[in-house]
Design a protein that fits this description.
By secondary structure, the protein is of the alpha/beta class. The protein has a domain at 101-323 and 337-352: Aspartate Aminotransferase, domain 2. 46% of the residues lie in helices and 11% in strands. The protein has helices at 3-23, 37-40, 53-64, 86-98, 109-125, 146-161, 165-169, 187-194, 215-227, 250-260, 297-300, 315-322, 332-336, 355-389, 417-430, 458-520, 535-539; strands at residues 139-143, 176-181, 202-205, 231-238, 263-267, 292-296, 308-312, 394-396, 404-409, 437-441, 444-450. The radius of gyration is 42 Å and the shape is globular. InterPro entries: Aromatic_deC (IPR010977), PyrdxlP-dep_de-COase (IPR002129), PyrdxlP-dep_Trfase (IPR015424), PyrdxlP-dep_Trfase_major (IPR015421), PyrdxlP-dep_Trfase_small (IPR015422). This is Aromatic-L-amino-acid decarboxylase.
Length: 556
């Protein structure tokens, strides 16, 4: 493709992209294809000859778009948002055009230094501690995801806890421990597995009524493990848990970790970027205690995936765990120690120029534009929570200081609440206008409404609330009708049973009457044979026996 062809076809692709942004609200939020539908629409073999962009765009519409769940749809309330925006797309386009490989400073100095600078900007924008800047003992880097960031934080913590021994000889089985709560993201347990600690090394700390980690319980578990010979390595505190948006108390957890020499990692993947608004920073009060911190610009800050902001106050532990320098990567800049080689801050060797899209977003919106973006969604969530709290059909079942609201529908007595709530969720999602998910709180199913899509406005949240009430009412009426039918059937069966019992009782009574009547009837006289005796014969003496013969006489 020549530059001129790229120009011409690039315009066509950008036109398609702009049209898609404009029409996304008209599409069903969740894909309606069945498993295998997309593959069955594709040819069995790759094309032998090249095809034009027009053919590719036609199949994009025919095959790909119907198989998408539209995360940028204004009715997308599932999981957490995955924002993108025009400036982010353009920044990604430029990054793709440049095609640089930013593994080392020397491979593209601008790729490294722009990223360092943008990450230092975010320290200020989010109110993070000065130790996270590149001018201090720490620094920031753009990771692929908070899952990856959690893993590198654990590796850095292992390096520090063992004095680098794990780099040389690996992890001693069963010796070290990691601490989470029941609300911590599963990626932390996965990190423990990948790092060689295993699931058994993960300790689950109890939570309070707001689903936040209990500092006293953490201290107790740490001390207990130390007394039993374990080495606590890392505590993962969460700012805005995935399930309910709960906030662990950093200000109380920090001293517990410091006093015991344990690395405190803060996973603020979703909620951390809300700190661009100063009035929301209290939610992560105590962040200055953190040894490392992660938050995702690609969730709620108008930047396309992947763009995780990862900071550490101890870059020596991070690079000590991850740095390795084969001869073919040696160069004067690296040897001088005057530059950052971001390959030593991540799992992979290679890396894209991800800071460009962050730079485009920051330059286009400015800090105030990002604040307004976050504030608008928080305000919409508070409105939804207010409507639900005032309605006798729903309960708001968890604190909701940001843009996640958990709702528990109320159902009539006798209705299986979990089944009813999941049925309501399925009806909402199947309708195509909205997409939301569920979680469990205290063992009960609740609905998660996560507001954060860039196009979501008040009218969309009002429509969601309308759909919630309409579908709840329809289901409640359906359940009531089914209950009434069951009651009627039960009454009918009871009546039939009573009728059968009455019939059986009548039959028993009749049988008893028949038996009694039979007993009262006269019995027939039994006939006997009568022998008549002649009176004269009766008066005659009995015949005398004849005389016996004399001895020796012959018989007659």
């Amino acid at each position: 493709m020549t530059p001129e062809e790229f120009r011409r076809f690039g315009h066509e692709v950008v036109d398609w992209a702009a049209d898609h942004m404009a029409r996304v609200e008209s599409l069903p939020v969740r894909s309606r294809v069945a498993p295998g539908d997309v593959r069955s629409a594709l040819p069995a073999s790759a094309p032998e000859q090249g095809e034009g962009i027009a053919a590719v765009l036609a199949d994009l519409e025919r095959v790909v778009v119907p198989g998408l769940t539209h995360w940028q749809h204004p009715g997308f309330y599932g999981y957490f948002p995955a924002n993108t925006s025009g400036p982010s797309v353009l920044g990604d386009l430029v990054s793709s055009v440049l095609g640089v490989q930013g593994m080392s400073w020397i491979t593209s100095p601008a790729c490294t230094e722009l990223e360092q600078h943008v990450m230092d900007w975010f320290v200020e924008l989010l109110g993070l501690p000065e130790a996270f800047t590149h001018g201090s003992t720490g620094g920031g880097v753009v990771q692929d995801s908070s899952s990856g960031a959690n893993l590198v934080a654990l590796l850095a913590a292992l390096h520090r806890a063992t004095g680098g021994r794990t780099v040389r000889s690996g992890v001693e089985p069963g010796a070290m421990t990691v601490y989470v709560s029941a609300q911590t993201h599963s990626s932390m347990e996965k990190a423990a597995r990948i790092a060689g600690l295993g699931t058994d090394a993960v300790r689950v700390v109890p939570v309070d009524g707001d689903l936040a980690m209990r500092p006293a319980e953490l201290a107790r578990k740490l001390d207990s493990d130390v007394a039993r010979g374990f080495t606590p390595v890392l505590v993962c505190a969460t700012v805005g848990t995935t399930s309910t948006g709960a906030f662990d108390p950093l200000a109380a957890l920090g001293p517990v970790c410091r006093d015991r020499g344990v690395w405190l990692h803060v996973d603020a993947a979703w909620a951390g970027v809300a700190a661009v608004a100063p009035e929301l920073r209290h939610l992560q009060e105590g962040v200055e205690w953190a040894d490392s911190y992660t938050t995702d610009a690609h969730k709620w800050l108008l930047t396309g995936f992947d763009a995780t902001l990862f900071f550490t106050a101890d870059r020596a532990a991070l690079t000590g765990a991850l740095a390795i320098l084969p001869e073919y990567l040696r160069n004067p800049a690296t040897d001088s120690g005057a530059v950052v080689d971001y390959r030593d801050w991540q799992i992979e060797l290679g890396r894209r120029f991800r800071a460009l899209k962050l730079w485009f977003v920051l330059r286009w919106y400015g800090a105030e534009g990002l604040r307004e973006h976050v504030r608008a969604h928080v305000a919409l969530a508070q409105q939804l929570a207010g409507w639900a709290a005032a309605d006798d059909r729903f309960d708001v079942v968890a604190p909701h200081p940001l843009s996640l609201v958990c709702l528990k529908p109320r159902w009539a007595r006798g209705v299986d609440a979990d089944v009813a709530t999941m049925t309501l969720l399925e009806r909402l999602v199947d309708g195509g206008e909205v997409f939301l998910t569920h979680t469990t709180i205290s063992g009960e199913v609740v609905l998660r409404v996560s507001i954060g899509a860039p196009a979501t406005e008040l009218r969309h949240v009002e429509r969601l609330w309308e759909l919630l009430r309409e579908n709840h009412d329809w289901l409640a009426a359906d359940f009531a009708e089914a209950a009434a039918e069951q009651q009627a059937a039960a009454e009918q069966e009871r009546a039939a049973r009573l009728e059968r019992e009455r019939a059986a009782e009548s039959e028993r009574a009749a049988e008893a009457e028949r038996a009694a009547a039979a007993a009262e009837e006269p019995q027939p006289v039994e006939h006997q044979t009568v022998v008549e005796v002649d009176p004269a014969a009766a008066e005659q003496p009995a015949e005398q026996p004849s005389e016996q013969p004399a001895a020796g006489s012959a018989p007659q």
